Amino acid sequence: MVRKSSLGAGRMLQWLGLSLIILIADQFTKVLVIGYYQLGASTEVTSFFNLVRAHNSGAAFSFLSDASGWQRWFFSVIGVLAAILIVWLLRSHSGQKLFSFAMACILGGAVGNVIDRLLYGYVVDFLDFHWRNWHFPAFNIADSAITIGATCLILDELLRVRRAR
User: For 41-62, what is each residue's pLDDT tens digit?
Assistant: First the structure.
């Protein structure tokens, strides 16, 4: 007979594995960008997408990027605290597939960006989508994973509320 706690641990390891895959993909792509591009250099891939090397010392959409440097440590601490909370949530709710998928995506992305902040003092961004004269702020794999995770969290909550009716 398989114990319930060992099933939960196995599920949690699956979600942590997904986080690790996201983290590795994020860091690998950032190493490539750092190795092949100087800051500001870009390559046009399509009429609406470029690869570009950008540095973001702030948070999403460069929030607080012009601060005096304290934001590096502030966002690093927030990322570490979020990672601890997410691991605890995964341990407690590993059987909830959509919720755990969302948490795993956010965890992998958050740790990826914390690593950048600790190593470089900024987050390396390189995905640049644009249309005519409009550019979406450059982002990376970690940001994409966090966005997917946040979207799945919203969906999970909407589905949970709907089931409760």
Answer: 999 999 999 999 999 876 665 5
Query: Does the annotation mark 143 as catalytic?
Result: yes
| Owning domain of residue 13 | 4-164
Instruction: Please give the C-alpha separations between residue 21 and each of 17, 78, 98, 148, in angstroms, as whole numbers.
Output: 6, 22, 17, 15
On whether the CB atoms of residues 102 and 156 are closer than 8 A, the answer is: yes
**Which phi-psi region, left, alpha or beta, contains residue 40 (left: φ > 0; alpha: ψ -120 to 50)?**
left
Number of domains in the chain: 1
Cα 116 to the chain's mean position, in Å? 12
- 116 as an active site residue: the answer is no
Residue 45: what residue type? V
Residue among 116, 125, 128, 156 flagged as catalytic? 125
Among residues 26, 116, 128, 143, the one annotated as catalytic is: 143
